[in-house]
Amino acid sequence: MLVSKLPQHVDIVIVGGGPVGALLAQRLVSSGHDALLVEAKHSVGNDPRALAIAYASSQTLAANGLWDESLGATPITRVHVSQAGTLGRTELNAAELDLPMLGSVVKYEKLAQYAFDQLSHNTVRLALGAKVTQIQRLARFAHLTLETDLGEQQISCRLVILADGGHLLAQLNDIQQTVKSYEQHAVLATLTPKHPHQGIAFERFADDGPLALLPTGNDYTLVWTQTPEQAASRLTLSDANFIAEVEQRFAGRVTGFTAVNGRASWPLSLKTVNSVVGQRVVLIGNAAQTLHPVAGQGLNLGLRDAATLADVLAATPARELGEATSLARYAKLRARDAGLVTAVTDSLITLFDSSALPLKHARSLGLLAMDQCSWLRRGFAERMVYGAR
């Protein structure tokens, strides 16, 4: 339900109308809480990113009316992982987990727009074009100042949940953010294969940076990690030369691309906070952690944040919303999953960044060991699908 003029008070304000904020808003309203979702943008706009959504995440979204066949998601049934210059390789297979798929690939703009549309037509209150500029937190309430189409508006609430809004972290003196630059850029492109992809995704650790090919419709979405200089150079290549560079990195594992479109790049960094909770505030999704895309876990982690917080708040009476006890319970429940996924993602970049021969052979042996041990493969695949449980 779209609103233009904000109420003077609401129990919970969620900042950020992407899939993570939308999931939380749906769940909170279903549990009877008084919530308002505010989003700084009026529309999703053009966003070229493709997202790898774990099977468990898509099931959670579907159960809350935020996922259906109209999104045109492409199933991933297998993931082929290999390292250049060695025999190291393994393959994750949905059949080993008795699942129809490991995950799906969907365009971000489609998923986000679908969330906007669903929220606009149900009982969740949604304010678009409302940017929070100031947070003032008191003992029992928080006061927000927002820029809206009707001018500056004020609202009070018991609890503020940041699913986005990194610009607001500087105002939270009890939460500190750490930013680690990888000094890398992600090159994004759409590649059209000559032969059907059959739902197989590829992760290739090349000597000059990891590449991922995600099946997207009839095409592949390429995510290629490069130095800033390499990324700038790759964007200026002719289509034929760019395709040749990609095919050379995959060394015959996937060939025959007939076209490339939509090349772009953006800088990569790891953003974490010392605490996901503070006085009258909770951080989830990208506000809590922004990860490297190498393992495709950023949005999946954020959706699990939203689902867990919804469970905690569903059991919290309105008068206790924002109190330290319930917030501490949420932080404890999310610590293991968030900490482990963040550490593993960061370690993959560190581990595969070195071209030293001994380390390269050690990585190869690790992939070969996973390929030979079904329990290792299943365990790793389960973490990718369900998180650290």
UniProtKB/TrEMBL annotation:
Cofactor field: FAD
Keywords: FAD, Flavoprotein, Monooxygenase, Oxidoreductase
Domain FAD-binding as annotated: residue spans: 10-337
Key word Acyltransferase present: no
Signal peptide stretch: none
Pathway it works in: Cofactor biosynthesis; ubiquinone biosynthesis
InterPro entries the record matches: FAD-bd, FAD/NAD-bd_sf, Ubi_Hdrlase_CS, UbiH/COQ6, UbiH/COQ6_monooxygenase
Entry similarity comment: Belongs to the UbiH/COQ6 family.
Name the UniProt record assigns to this protein: 2-octaprenyl-6-methoxyphenyl hydroxylase
